[in-house]
Write a structure and sequence with these properties.
With 950 residues, the protein is of the alpha/beta class. It is 59% helix and 7% strand. The strands form 4 sheets. The chain has a 5-stranded antiparallel beta sheet with strand order 4-3-2-1-8, with helices on both faces. The longest helix has 18 residues, at 520-537. The protein is elongated, with a radius of gyration of 36 Å. The termini are far apart.
């Protein structure tokens, strides 16, 4: 990858380079892919030095006399803009005339070490032979050589153990074809006196400077034009002296190129800093052993362990543990080698379990390694001992952060008297002890997991941990104070970009606050402030556990104690609603929230409590009581409510009436809700009611439309609602979109392929997010879907198992459809008695609770069961069941249930040789439909009518 012999022009502007000879566009040394025609256009523009190049001139020069449409030029201009990324505006358009490339582009004539040695002799090389294969660094080696074709000083920078030296040496051992320059390694790790740097370099160069003081100047004179690749290894402890020599040599020795390895940059003219990345680590999602083993960190562990005599089997358990080890060790090669050495005595899962005590555990380095590379602690001691006292102090305080943090968090954690925290933090970043993410408006920082463990250990040893933990907890109380309000003005993605990345820090702060010697009152305040975080991330179980702990330790007599208790009670009520087997416990939490909201005259939490109590009554089967809370909610917002609250009132009424079975009134209120969507900002409204109001309204609209017989409209809403739910990014809302709307409606429409697709989405979604109740529902749905596809032997056990796992949650309204299908499937499987018992239990429950939305279908299923062969068969009882289903469906305006019942009744009449009655009953329902004629039931009805008509 080295350039052709002799100098070549390279145009440079900020981080961009355009190499005309090599036909390459590079950004910060990285090659940016660009097609041939596009590069030729870019070359013409950069050589014009900011002057306008007309479209005519560009097409003539690039296509050389071949006639092309102007659209072809526009395609390649678009490709250039895409390649420039965030700097796309550098390519300016003069409308109707042509283009110019903006910016100050200077020309640098590059040379490279790819040339014959001046002496004509074979090159001088002192690079030691490799004692082992370098794993996972082929891309980095190729990248380093590309950088050396553009820069004469490349500093390989990174934390201890990242593999800077190994990378530099392996690159020096494997130069590009035709590379004939000298390659010399200067090892500086053992130096304790910076004044000896020049002497060591001179010794490696073989330079005799008799009677002359050895200095940067004398070294530069001795090198002269000699073609040379000089590797200056382990510079951090003598960085100033190395920088002085390197800068002078580069300025005077045209044939010299330098690769420096250090934990911080040299900061000299012409230097390019390459931060050596860690080895690739597998993601936390479960992978097959072969897929996980393809990651370079896993390969390194496995090969090193087996080279040392380990004989573990590369099965799912062991490879999964190795992947976890590599993640915990941040992909740092040296730390992974230490861990691999332990695999001779311990299994990978045992090694993973012992990593919390890594500084005692990871101590088996190579005997021939430098002392600072023989244990993990020694590696970090080397960096820590080089720090001035104030930087060492700040690094210890940063150990309190378990995740990413911002500059203001650093200042807060450091406390008073820290002085220039910004400057000290920047120096820790420069020394590779802190990682910086400068993308976006607000830079974020973090420690590698191993560095953090080391800093935290030092923090405890210095007796500074309690004060640092308290400062962190207070900071996050302030940080999250505005989180809920911010949700009203930002999208969920934007909100999570600001707040979501701090969840690990919140967790560690809470762990300290509720520990012995912590501050429970501060912990309760932080828990209440951070509730929106668990809401947005749909961490239901964690939210419940954290709020219950905070409530147990809260002192209500303390300042603001009652308000915090109200906030925590509401959060607990919400989280209980969606927990498997815990939904019925939510009522007491919401009742306490209501009482405190009334006592504190807090209208916001009054509405939350009324909403929660309404939903709680659904879960407890008290649908009339739920309607009372819905009306009370509507009364509260009638006069002073904002548009969102009024919309929510109608949505509550629509939902309640839908479940009660009054689909006509439900349609009225859902229509009012939809008419107010324009009053709702384009952003999701998640925080107050814990789901996206805009998206969640649509799936209830689809359910109501479906039951009313407006099938095409319902299916259109489902299709758009799934996309809306996916885009919203709110995990719990998307569960409801799929589980309340898409899955059941596709199933009822007879589109089993779509139903299976939506079911798979829901299962995968609830495995990515810890929303267990919806995962259980999805597995029940999958069981009934497989059964309906004709495989009762496989589907029925899945359905029954899921309903057993659901426990008391199977009495929630969403589980009625699986219960009804269970009854039907039991009958088809030959167990008519159990099927009838299941249907009877569901009917009794619905009638006792006034849960009317599915009751007509349950009566129809009962009728179908009574027609199956066996001792329970009774056509008279079946006809009565169908009559009851007709009555309920017609009273509710549920045309879809009426059609299904008509089909069942028509089949009964046909079996009794009463075709005229069959046709009349079926036509009476079919003729009411105005749409949805390609859905399964309407197709069946149409076919039956055609048969009866003949």
């Amino acid at each position: 990858m080295m350039a052709e012999p002799g100098p070549r022009p390279v145009y440079i502007c900020a981080e961009w380079e355009i190499d005309l000879v090599r036909r390459e566009l590079r950004s910060a040394g990285e090659l940016v892919p660009l097609g041939g025609r596009a590069f030729e256009i870019l070359a013409e523009l950069v050589q014009a030095q900011g002057q306008l190049v007309t479209k005519k001139d560009l097409t003539e020069r690039v296509w050389r006399g071949v006639f092309v449409e102007e659209s072809a030029l526009r395609v390649h201009i678009a490709a250039i803009r895409k390649a420039l990324g965030s700097d796309r505006d550098m390519l300016s358009t003069a409308v109707g005339r042509g283009y110019r490339l903006l910016g100050t582009w200077r020309i640098r004539h590059m040379d490279t070490p790819q040339r014959s040695a001046a002496t004509g002799l074979p090159p001088s090389i002192n690079i030691p032979s490799a004692s082992f294969d370098l794993i996972g660094r082929s891309a980095e080696i190729a990248h380093l050589w590309r950088l050396l074709s553009a820069y004469r000083v490349v500093s390989l920078v990174g934390p201890g153990g990242i593999g800077k030296t190994a990378l530099a040496l392996e690159a020096a051992r494997t130069p590009p074809t035709g590379f004939l320059a000298d390659r010399l390694l200067v090892e500086l790790a053992s130096l304790s006196d910076p004044r000896l740097v020049c002497s060591v370099i001179a010794g490696v160069l073989g330079t005799k400077l008799e009677g002359e003081e050895i200095s940067p100047d004398s070294i530069a004179r001795a090198i002269g034009p000699r073609p040379l690749l000089l590797i200056l290894d382990n510079c951090e402890h003598v960085i100033d002296a190395v920088a002085q020599v390197a800068e002078l040599v580069i300025s005077r020795c045209s044939g010299t190129f330098i690769v420096a390895t250090s934990r911080e940059a040299l900061r000299i003219e012409g230097e390019h800093v390459y931060r050596v990345p860690p080895l690739g680590v597998p993601p936390e999602v479960r992978l097959e052993p072969a897929a996980a083993s393809a990651y370079s960190s896993v390969e390194l562990f496995t090969r090193r362990a087996k080279a040392l005599g380990s004989s573990f089997v590369s099965d799912e358990e062991n490879i999964g543990a190795i992947a976890a080890i590599c993640r915990r060790l941040d992909g740092i090669p040296l730390a992974i080698e230490f861990a691999a050495a332990r695999a001779v005595m311990l299994s990978p899962p045992k090694i993973a379990a012992l990593l919390d005590d890594r500084f005692k555990f990871l101590t088996t380095g190579r005997r021939t390694a430098l002392p600072r590379q023989q244990t993990l602690r020694a590696t970090l001691d080397w960096s820590y001992d080089l720090l001035p006292d104030h930087e060492a102090w700040l690094l210890r305080q940063l150990g309190i952060f378990a995740g990413e943090f911002q500059l203001d968090a650093v200042i807060a954690a450091a406390g008073e008297g820290i002085g220039d925290a910004t400057g000290q933090l920047s120096r820790l970043v420069a020394k590779s002890l802190v990682l910086a993410d400068i993308r976006g408006d607000s830079p974020h920082y973090r420690l590698l997991d191993t560095t953090r463990a080391y800093a935290l250990e030092k923090l405890h040893a210095a007796g500074e941990y309690p004060d640092a933990a308290r400062r962190e907890a207070k900071y996050y109380c302030r940080f999250f104070a505005g989180a809920e309000a911010d949700s009203e003005t930002t999208s969920q993605a934007e909100w999570l970009a600001v707040y979501g990345r701090h969840i690990d820090n919140v967790r560690t702060s809470l762990d300290w606050a509720f520990s012995s010697g912590g501050d429970p009152q501060l912990g309760a305040a932080l828990t209440a402030a951070a509730v929106p975080l668990w809401v947005q991330l749909s961490l239901l179980t964690e939210c419940r556990e954290r709020t219950e702990l905070a409530l147990a330790r809260l002192d209500p007599t303390a300042a603001n104690g009652l308000r915090i208790r109200m906030q925590l009670s509401a959060a607990r009520g919400w989280s209980l609603m969606y927990g498997v087997g815990r939904a019925r416990e939510a009522g007491s939490a919401w009742a306490e929230t209501l009482q405190l909201a009334e006592q504190l005259e807090d209208r916001d939490y009054l509405l939350r409590a009324l909403w929660g109590l309404c939903i709680d009554q659904f879960n407890n089967g008290e649908f009339q009581r739920a309607l009372e809370f819905a009306h009370r909610f509507a009364t509260v917002v009638a006069d002073a409510g904002n548009p969102v609250d009024r919309m929510m009132a109608d949505r509550l009424l629509a939902t309640t009436l839908h479940y009660l079975g009054d689909q006509r009134q439900a349609y009225h209120h859902i229509g009012r809700t939809m008419s107010r969507l324009s009053d709702l900002a384009a952003k999701p409204q998640v925080i107050r009611f814990r789901f996206d109001l805009r998206v969640s309204t649509r799936y209830f609209q689809a359910r109501i439309l479906w039951l009313l017989g407006l099938a095409d409209q319902a299916l259109d809403v489902v299709e758009s609602n799934v996309e809306e739910g996916r885009i919203s990014g709110h995990a719990l809302t998307f569960c409801s979109v799929l589980g309340q709307g898409a899955c059941p409606i596709a199933f009822l429409a007879g589109d089993l392929d779509a139903a299976e697709r939506y079911c798979t989405m829901l299962i995968e979604h609830t495995e990515r997010h810890p929303i267990r109740l919806w995962n259980v529902w999805a597995r029940a749905f999958r069981g009934m879907l497989i059964s309906r596809q004709g495989d009762l032997a496989a589907g029925l056990p899945l359905l029954r198992k899921a309903l057993e796992v659901a426990g008391e949650a199977r009495y929630l309204p969403r589980f009625l459809l699986p219960l009804g299908e269970l009854a039907a499937c039991l009958g088809e499987a030959g167990d008519v008695s159990e099927g009838l018992a299941t249907a009877a239990d569901a009917l009794a429950r619905c009638e006792a609770r006034y849960e009317g939305w599915y009751i007509a279908e349950l009566w129809r299923i009962k009728g179908e069961l009574l027609l199956l062969p066996g001792e329970r068969r009774s056509t008279i009882s079946a006809a009565r069941a169908f009559d009851r289903a007709f009555e309920l469906a017609r009273n509710q305006g549920a045309l879809f249930w009426e059609l299904r019942t008509a089909i069942s009744m028509a089949r009964l009449r046909m079996s009794e040789r009463r075709p005229a009655d069959a046709r009349n009953v079926l036509a009476s329902a079919y003729d009411k439909f105005t749409e949805g004629f390609e859905t399964a039931d309407l197709r069946d009805a149409r076919a039956m009518l055609a048969k009866l008509g003949s």
